[in-house]
Design a protein that fits this description.
The complex is a heterodimer of chains A (285) and B (303). Chain A has helices at 3-22, 31-48, 72-81, 121-135, 153-164, 185-188, 194-200, 213-221, 259-269; strands at residues 63-66, 141-146, 170-176, 179-180, 183-184, 204-209, 231-236. Chain A has 285 residues and is an alpha/beta fold. Chain B is α/β, with parallel strands linked by helices. In chain B, α7 links the parallel β5 and β6. Chain B is globular. Classes of the chains: A alpha/beta (285), B alpha/beta (303).
C-alpha cells in the first residue's frame, strides 16, 4: 500500500468516525463498538471486498455481514462515504422518516442482512458461501462478529459446520476490542486462548492490529487463507478508538450526548483537547 | 407416492430447491444420492440449519429444511422468527414426528406447541397435512409459494382418497349437519373413523380437513358453524395456539355464536407409548372421538 493510499484510508476512517460521533446526539448509539470496528469496515469496503454501489446486488459480489449489529453506525457511515447512499441521509439517524436505527436492516443500501440478535450471521453467511460455491460464483463471504458475541454457542456450531463443508470462501473477522456490553470479556467469560480455539475448530487463523491499515493490507492480501477451511482474522482493536475520552472504557458502550458535547467530541477526534463530558456514563445491564 | 419421492421429483424439476437436514434422514431417504451438492446435512445443529437456509434463500434458492419438529421449532425458534420470518424468505421448514407421532420418545420430543409458535410469526404459513397422501398433494404448491412455511410432517397412510390441493382451501370430506368436525393433522384418520361411527348411530357429521392452519379457510369454518349444531376441533396439539384457538379467533372476530369444543392434548405432556397406546391413553382413537362428540352434543342439547 502506498503512503497516499494509507492517507486516503485514514481520511476516510476519520470521516466515518465523525459521522459515528454525530450519531450519538439525542437518542444516541452504540458508539464504543462502532469506533472499534470503524477502521476494519473502512479497510474491508475500500480495499478488500469486491462490492460497489453499482454492483451491490450482483450474484458474484463479495458479501459483508455485520453480525454484531449494534455497531451499525460505522457501517452506515462507511457505506454512505463510499457512495452506497447519500451522506446527508446519515442526518436521518433515528428519524421517523428513515430506516437508520440502532441495528442494521436491508432497506439501507450496502446492508446485506439485518442483525441485532448476536450469533446469527455466521450461519447465514454459511448459506451464502455454500451457495456461491454451488453456483460457481467467486464470492467471498466476510462475517464480522464482536468478541463478546463469541459467548453465543451458535457461532461455534456454525463454525463446526463451515469446517465440515470445507468452505474456503467464508471469512470470520473478530472485532477483538476486549469489552462486551459493560464488562471486559476476560473478566466475565474468558475467551483466551482465542486463536487456539479457532485453530482447534480447523480454521485458518491470523491475528492483526485492527487499526493498522498496512498490517490489515498484509493479512487480507492472503485472505482467505486456506482453500478448504474457513478463515478467521482476530483483529485487535480498542473500544472508542479515536476519541480518547471514550477509549477502552467499559461504560462507554451505548452513549447519548448533548449537541455541545458532540461538538467537543468531534474536536477531540480531530486532535484537540479532551471533551468535558457531563452526560452520565450509561450502564445498560 | 411417499414424501421423499415427491420431493425428489420436485427438486429434479427445479434446481432452486436445496434439501437440508439436521441429521433427520428418515423422511428423505434416497435424496442424498440423487441431489448431490443440493443436499446438505449439517449434523445435529438446528440453529445452523435455519441460518444456512436463510443464506441460501437470500441467494435465490428454495431451501427445504428437515429436523425433528420439537427441536426445529423450539431450539431454532429465534432463528426462524428473526432470520426467516423478519426477512420473509421462502424457506420451507419440515418438522418430523410432531404431536402424537413422537410416540414413545417422551416429553423432550413432544412438539405440542409447534403450531402455536409457528403461526405466531408474521408471514410464516403452516401446513398440517392429514397423512402422507395429503402431504404429497400439497407439497408442490407450498414449495412454489414465495412465503416461508412450516410443514407438520406426517407419514401415516391415507384414510381416504383426498381431493386435489387448493392452497388455503380446506377439504370438506363429509357434509352432515349435526356436528362439524374440524381437523388439522395426523388425527384425521381417527376423526374420519369417528365420523363413520357417528353416522352409523344416526349422527350426521360435516368432516373438514383444514390442511393449512395459516392461511385458514375462514369461509369453510363459517359455513360449518352455520350449518351444524356443534363445532369440534380435533388436533394433536395443546389447546393453546393451535386449531382450536384459530377457530375461536374467527368466531370471535365474525361475532358468530357457535358452540365449540376441543379434542386436543390438554395442558400437559402425554404419557410416552407406541401410537395405538397413546391414542388409547389420551382417548384420541376413533371410538373415543365418537363418544366424546356424542357427549358434547348431549351436553350442549341439555343447556
Amino acid at each position: 500500500m502506498t503512503p497516499a493510499e494509507q492517507d486516503g484510508l485514514r481520511d476516510l476512517a476519520l470521516r466515518v468516525r465523525e459521522h459515528v460521533v454525530r450519531m450519538t446526539v439525542g437518542g444516541g448509539c452504540f458508539v464504543g463498538a462502532s469506533l472499534s470496528c470503524a477502521d476494519l469496515l473502512v479497510f474491508l469496503y475500500a480495499r478488500y471486498l469486491r462490492i460497489s454501489p453499482a454492483h451491490r446486488t450482483a450474484p458474484g459480489r463479495d458479501y459483508l455481514l455485520l453480525s454484531k449489529g449494534h455497531d451499525v453506525p460505522a457501517l452506515y457511515a462507511t457505506c454512505a462515504e463510499l457512495g452506497f447512499f447519500d451522506v446527508a441521509r446519515l442526518g436521518n439517524h433515528l428519524g421517523a422518516q428513515d430506516d437508520l436505527y440502532w441495528h442494521p436492516n436491508r432497506r439501507i443500501p450496502g446492508v446485506e442482512f439485518h442483525s441485532g440478535s448476536l450469533g446469527h450471521l455466521l450461519a447465514v453467511g454459511l448459506g451464502l458461501a455454500y451457495d456461491a460455491r454451488l453456483a460457481g460464483d467467486p464470492s467471498r463471504v466476510v462475517v464480522v462478529v464482536g468478541d463478546g458475541e463469541l459467548d453465543e454457542g451458535s457461532v461455534w456450531e456454525a463454525l463446526l459446520v463451515a469446517r465440515a463443508q470445507r468452505l474456503g470462501n467464508l471469512l470470520l473477522v473478530v472485532d477483538r476490542n476486549g469489552i462486551q456490553a459493560n464488562l471486559r470479556t476476560e473478566e466475565l467469560t474468558p475467551l483466551e486462548p482465542l486463536a487456539e480455539k479457532f485453530a482447534a475448530f480447523g480454521c485458518a487463523v491470523r491475528g492483526v492490529d485492527g487499526h493498522d491499515f498496512t498490517a490489515l493490507d498484509v493479512v487480507f492480501r492472503d485472505a482467505p487463507f486456506a482453500p478448504d477451511a474457513p478463515s478467521v482474522v482476530i483483529a485487535r482493536t480498542l473500544r472508542g478508538k479515536g476519541v480518547p475520552s471514550l477509549e477502552d472504557r467499559a461504560d462507554r458502550w451505548f452513549c447519548a450526548f448533548t449537541p455541545d458535547e458532540v461538538e467537543e467530541l468531534v474536536r477531540e477526534l480531530h486532535g484537540r483537547a479532551p471533551a468535558g463530558l457531563t452526560s452520565a456514563p450509561l450502564v445498560v445491564r | 407416492m411417499d414424501y421423499a419421492t415427491a420431493l425428489g421429483k420436485l427438486a429434479a424439476a427445479n434446481d432452486r430447491i436445496v434439501v437440508l437436514t439436521a441429521e433427520n434422514r428418515v423422511p428423505i431417504r434416497g435424496l442424498p444420492e440423487r441431489l448431490g451438492d443440493r443436499f446438505v446435512d449439517v449434523g445435529i445443529a438446528e440453529q445452523t440449519l435455519v441460518g444456512m437456509s436463510t443464506g441460501l434463500a437470500l441467494r435465490g434458492r428454495i431451501p427445504v429444511a428437515h429436523a425433528l419438529a420439537a427441536f426445529l421449532t423450539m431450539r431454532a425458534f429465534e432463528f426462524i422468527r428473526t432470520d426467516v420470518g423478519v426477512a420473509g424468505l421462502p424457506v420451507k421448514l419440515v418438522g418430523s414426528v410432531p404431536g402424537i407421532l413422537s410416540t414413545a420418545n417422551g416429553p423432550t420430543h413432544q412438539a405440542l406447541e409447534d403450531v402455536a409458535l409457528m403461526r405466531g410469526i408474521p408471514g410464516l404459513k403452516v401446513f398440517c397435512p392429514a397423512d402422507v397422501e395429503d402431504l404429497v398433494l400439497g407439497l408442490g404448491a407450498i414449495l412454489a409459494d414465495p412465503a416461508p412455511w412450516y410443514i407438520r410432517y406426517v407419514d401415516r397412510p391415507p384414510a381416504i382418497r383426498h381431493s386435489t390441493f387448493d392452497l388455503g382451501r380446506a377439504e370438506t370430506v363429509r357434509r352432515g349437519t349435526d356436528v362439524g368436525l374440524l381437523v388439522a393433522g395426523a388425527l384425521f384418520t381417527e376423526a374420519h373413523d369417528a365420523a363413520v361411527r357417528l353416522a352409523s348411530h344416526g349422527v350426521s357429521v360435516r368432516l373438514v380437513n383444514l390442511r393449512t392452519i395459516k392461511p385458514i379457510d375462514e369461509e369453510c369454518i363459517v359455513t360449518t358453524a352455520e350449518t351444524t349444531r356443534l363445532l369440534v376441533t380435533v388436533e394433536d396439539h395443546f389447546r393453546t395456539g393451535g386449531l382450536y384457538s384459530a377457530v375461536a379467533e374467527i368466531l370471535a372476530r365474525r361475532r358468530l355464536r357457535a358452540p365449540l369444543s376441543a379434542i386436543c392434548l390438554e395442558d400437559r405432556w402425554f404419557r410416552p407409548a407406541l401410537l395405538d397406546q397413546v391414542l388409547e391413553n389420551e382417548r384420541l382413537g376413533g371410538s373415543h372421538i365418537a363418544s366424546r362428540v356424542t357427549a358434547a352434543l348431549e351436553s350442549k342439547d341439555a343447556h
